[in-house]
Amino acid sequence: MRALTAAAIGLAAALALVLTITAIGVPAGRTSPKPLLTTVPRHP
User: Fold this and answer.
1) Using H for helix, E for strand and C for coil, what is the string for 5-42?
2) With the C-alpha atoms ordered 11, 15, 16, 18, is the resulting torsion angle positive or negative?
């Protein structure tokens, strides 16, 4: 029974966190048009 209670509390906390982030909204800003480099450029 304790495990079920702990799982319910954890689920409620996770749901509250998601709802809080959703209510706050996406932070203002813009993404860079330049692609990120995933490898080190090779020098000739």
Assistant:
1) HHHHHHHHHHHHHHHHHHHHCCCCCCCCCCCCCCCCCC
2) positive
Q: Which pTM was predicted?
A: 0.54
Q: What span, in angstroms and rounded, lies between the C-alpha atoms of 24 and 17?
A: 11
CA 14 vs CA 4, 6, 21, 32, 38: distances in Å: 15, 12, 11, 31, 33
- pLDDT, tens only, 3-19: 999 999 999 999 999 99
CA distance 12 to 14: 5
Residue in the block written with tokens 């906390």: 13
